[in-house]
Amino acid sequence: MTDPERTPDGHYVVIDGRRWRATDPAIPEERRAELTRVLMAWRREVGRTKGTDEEGAARAGVQAAKVALGERGTPWWEQSDAEREERWSAGVPVPGAGGGTSGAG
């Protein structure tokens, strides 16, 4: 699989002609992979809970994972190195973990 096209500044990926904020490239590979797994689990949970009272919690999980990855919230290129590390190191809720989190939380 090839990497998606990026804008010249590297801040966005372009998929089907649409720009999406790129994942923070400074995130250590192991943590990036962990956050991506959590994000995908929350996306599956959104599908499973669609139209139920639990859907809101699943969407909040997607939001938390995307913020940790730098894809939402304050743009990673506007944050200091310390702010970036704090963002990706923060605990992110994990679906079905009974309130558990991924990472230092």
Automatic annotation (TrEMBL):
Region (Disordered): 69-105
Domain of life: Bacteria
Biased composition, class Gly residues, residue ranges: 96-105
Name this protein carries in UniProt: Biopolymer transporter Tol
Species per Swiss-Prot/TrEMBL record: Nocardioides marinus
